[in-house]
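In this supplementary section we document a worked example of the pipeline. Step one takes a protein sequence of length 185 as its only input; no multiple sequence alignment statistics are reported here. Step two produces a three-dimensional model, which step three serialises into structure tokens for compact storage. The input and output of this example are shown verbatim.
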Amino acid sequence: MQIFMRWKPASRPTSRLAEYESPVQPVPRTVVLEPGFAETKRVKVFGQGWDESAARVRPAVIAAPAPDLIRLAERWESRWARPTHFLVILGRVDTGPATAEERDLLWEAFGLPVFEQVLDGSNHVLAYECDAHDGFHVRRVGLRLSGCVLENSLCACGDPAPRLLPLPAPAYALTHRAGEDFARQ
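The serialised model returned by step three reads:
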């Protein structure tokens, strides 16, 4: 008696790493200085920070938390090729957006536009800075930004997602309520 077993291919493990989401398409050659992101042909991840290996990539874009970008600006070496497109600040729910002073310092150091994304603990984008730099477009339900008001009118950039617009205030704190739906609004 023969027993035939059905052969099932081994399932591929799903990546637990988040994909970096570029503000522009196609994705420029990007170096991400934050662990927990998946690498692709155009995105290289250096979770331990900038080093000679990252410099050899000659990125058009550098994405990192604001303090890391500022440290990088302060110790930039002339032998490294400067990024050519823009910088991306990877903000966190608990740190709030970059300050005007931080953004100015990055502009002075690199001479490039700065875009900001607000990430959850798994590096998924909760909100992203408007292309026109007019607040943060909200992608995830439940995101609140103290010192900001939610604006639902169509943005000048054409993105229909609601925006969090800053009000004059000395400090901001982002909060996200655990367990809320993360569906795109």
